[in-house]
Write a structure and sequence with these properties.
heterodimer, A: about 140 residues, alpha+beta, four-stranded antiparallel β-sheet, 4 helices, 4 strands, about 40% helix, about 30% strand, B: about 575 residues, seven-stranded mixed β-sheet, seven-stranded antiparallel β-sheet, about 25% strand, disordered N terminus
């Protein structure tokens, strides 16, 4: 009987040691590898779209002045746009961005749903956005 | 027993040594396997940037069934340098051009000894065209001069002046925007399943950009070859030109991109094949040898547009990466390679005939793309070096082409560079010029006018007075002495995708101008529309559509003079020669 009880204690001790070991290794990994990005840098925050960003884009796209529109376009889009500048929505139309759909596709690109209301009809679109100097700019749009 | 065992062991050791020695010498010897080639004309297919020999669609390449009545046909062999396909050709790490030059020498020698043409044709896609250019220049390939063993050369989407996806200040803004858009769509493909349902529709954009294209775009920015494709790079400038004596056809794909932001959409923009622009793919230096160019229209790339049908137009199947799988492009390759590789037996020397001859090979006019146009020729002259003929008119097309062929060994070899619409239209060898009567053509009461820009020609009734030459050289108006009628012969670079579209436009345009349409007919690529204008004058429009240009004969005259003008219209229509409408001018 003593032999059997002794074996149970040994198993308990071995189990505890293994558990502690695993926890220690996991802790070390968390603070050295997992918590950082692959190149060893501290993880950066995922880019988001603030309400101010969205409002600025909404207002500029609805503006009838091409110069105002160009301020929220990506540099490439703005250069192309300035070759044949014109309003991008009908007069009086409003643009509304649904920030809940904002999705980053890689470190420089994102998409977000929007709608254009011209007073008679509402068109759902998706804006392709590109990050320029920490600001989201419009690259193009496509009907949702 | 022991002796026998020892002997067997010794034999085994010697045998193994021999096997090792044999293996070593085989590895050291240059490989020149030409099994299966026989007398067929060898064609090397050279893949492009970040690609491999598997890119060539097996159902399109090779085609090596002999045609009735011919000897020689072609057998295609993909050349693979995939391990170095992102390395710039002239970097020390790249041996692609050197190995290609060795393979060309090997195949040419084998072809010669087999009784074949003794030459090799080369087809290069994308960077493959540049690898070929390097291989043919001893200073670049570090191998002997290959002049004399190269037949035709075809390049497809080769970035001779770079790719507009490599940003450069001189590049058009919309092109740069398109390149940025491709990057953004490539990011979308990666994020597909993470997109919220409300924006899932944006994935339709990904229908026209596939992963191989995204991989190309990515490597353009990071590889030595990709960096060399920057417009205006020194690497491209330093690459040797094509050697003299080579016939080079350059093929470009043309896609029109419609950019948009919400309701704003500028004029469609030419984006080439989405990686290499048309001008870059067709680029030739003025000193480069004979050849031609072919531009293949792949339609319009239009993203979904507000207020329009929300169906995205997929990028046509002939974008840069998939060009080696497109049948239209393969046809453009075959137009050059096929005739070169197909030979009729030596008995077909046209100079033994007295009036006309059957064309030695059934090669097609690169412009008109119709094998039937050039089956027979009127013989104009023979010399020791050349036979010169004029293509006989076929059906309504009124083809009137001069062709000459180099005579060699008692039979002729067709030379595509010997194609002209009239005397003086292209530079002909002196010997050929001397066989031609290059006086202005006249057929009795008519004088033939040939437009130097588009190459079409029409017969003008005597006494008609030519108007002022327009600045763009697109044609002329000829007014009758009595001023009650005139004719116009003109051309325009194509804006229509098909003969059907051009014909429909001709009818719609006539009706929009208040004209009646009393007669309309479309036969092949020839559209005819006639009727009365608002003043009851009779108009007649004959238009010949081609992929590159559309050329037109137009008449307008008073109805009361029908008896006079009817025969003139009939004659000028039947003798109207549309020129090489397959190419833009």
């Amino acid at each position: 009987m003593a032999f059997v009880r002794g074996s149970a204690n040994k198993r308990l001790v071995v189990g505890l040691v293994v558990l502690i070991g695993v926890a220690a290794v996991a802790g070390v990994l968390w603070f050295t590898v997992w918590r950082t990005t692959p190149d060893g840098a501290e993880p950066t925050a995922t880019p988001t779209m603030s309400e101010a960003d969205a409002t600025a884009i909404e207002r500029a796209l609805a503006d009838q002045d091409p110069e105002r529109v160009a301020t929220v376009l990506s540099p490439e889009a703005a250069a192309a746009y300035r070759e044949e500048p014109a309003p991008v929505v009908p007069t009086g139309a409003t643009v509304t961005i649904d920030r809940s759909t904002f999705t980053v596709t890689d470190e420089r690109n994102a998409v977000v749903a929007a709608s254009v209301d011209d007073g008679g009809a509402v068109s759902d679109v998706v804006l392709l956005l590109t990050l320029e100097d920490d600001e989201w700019r419009v690259l193009t749009s496509v009907t949702a | 027993m022991t002796r026998r065992l020892l002997a067997m062991l010794a034999a085994l050791v010697v045998g193994c040594s021999l096997a090792v020695a044999t293996g070593s010498s085989a590895a050291a010897a240059p490989s020149c396997d030409t099994q299966g080639m026989g007398t067929r004309a060898p064609v090397l297919l050279v893949h492009g940037f970040r690609s491999a020999s598997s890119t060539w669609a097996r159902d399109l390449y090779p085609r090596h069934e002999p045609l009735p009545g011919t000897v020689f046909t072609w057998i295609a062999e993909p050349f693979d340098y995939s391990a170095q396909a992102t390395e710039w050709i002239q970097n020390t790490k790249s041996t692609a051009a050197t190995k290609l030059a060795e393979r060309i020498s090997c195949l040419a020698a084998a072809s010669r000894s087999n009784g074949g043409p003794g030459k090799v044709a080369l087809v290069g896609h994308s960077m493959g065209g540049l690898v070929i250019r390097c291989a043919l220049a001893p200073a670049c390939s570090h191998r002997p001069d290959l002049t004399g063993v190269v037949g035709q050369v075809v390049t497809i989407g080769t970035p001779s002046r770079g790719s507009f996806l490599r940003p450069h200040s001189a590049v058009d803004a919309v092109a740069v925007a398109f390149g940025r858009l491709v990057e953004a769509v490539c990011a979308l493909i990666g994020a597909g399943s993470r997109l919220p349902s409300r924006v899932q529709g944006v994935l339709t954009l990904a229908a026209w950009v596939d992963r191989p294209l995204c991989d190309v775009v990515s490597e353009l920015a990071t590889s030595s070859a990709g960096r060399a494709f920057t417009v205006g790079s020194s690497e491209l400038d330093d690459l040797p030109a094509w050697p003299s004596g080579a016939y080079v056809r350059t093929i470009a794909v043309s896609i029109r991109f419609v950019y948009q932001i919400l309701f704003w959409s500028p004029s469609p923009f030419e984006i080439g094949d989405a990686v290499v622009g048309v001008a870059s793919a067709l680029y030739r230096t003025p000193s480069e040898p004979a050849g031609d160019s072919k531009q293949i229209s792949c339609g319009e790339l239009r993203l979904t547009r507000l207020g329009a049908a929300s169906v995205p137009t997929a990028l046509p199947n002939c974008h840069h990466v998939s060009e080696t799988r497109d049948g239209r492009i393969q046809n453009a390759v075959s137009e050059v390679i096929g005739p070169w590789a197909r030979r009729t037996p030596p008995s077909a020397d046209p100079c033994s005939d007295d009036e006309s001859f059957t064309v030695v090979a059934d090669w097609a006019d690169p412009g008109l793309n119709d094998d039937g146009y050039f089956e027979r020729y009127e013989l104009l002259g023979c010399s020791d070096g050349y036979v010169v003929g004029r293509g006989l008119p076929v059906a309504d097309a009124g083809v009137d082409y001069i062709v000459f062929q180099e005579r060699s060994g008692g039979w002729t070899r067709p030379q595509l560079y010997g194609l002209a619409t009239s005397c003086g239209a292209i530079d002909l060898p002196d010997e050929v010029e001397s066989l031609l009567s290059c006086e202005p053509e006249s057929t009795g009461d008519y004088t033939r006018y040939t437009n130097p820009r588009f190459g079409f020609s029409c017969e003008v009734p005597s006494g008609f007075v030519a108007g002022d030459e327009p600045a763009n050289g697109d044609g002329l108006q000829f007014t009758s002495p009595s001023h009650d009628g005139y004719m116009i012969c003109s051309g325009v670079n194509n804006v229509w995708q098909s003969a059907e579209e051009a014909h429909a436009e001709a009818i719609a345009s006539a009706q929009a101008d208040g004209n009646s349409v009393e007669y309309e007919d479309l036969s092949g690529s020839v559209s005819t529309v006639s009727g009365f204008d608002e003043d009851a004058n009779i108009y007649y429009r004959r238009t010949v559509w081609g992929e590159g240009s559309t050329n037109t004969l137009y008449w307008l005259y008073q109805r009361s003079a029908q008896a006079v003008y009817g025969p003139l219209v009939e004659h000028t229509a039947s003798t109207f020669s549309p020129g090489p409408v397959g190419e833009s001018r």
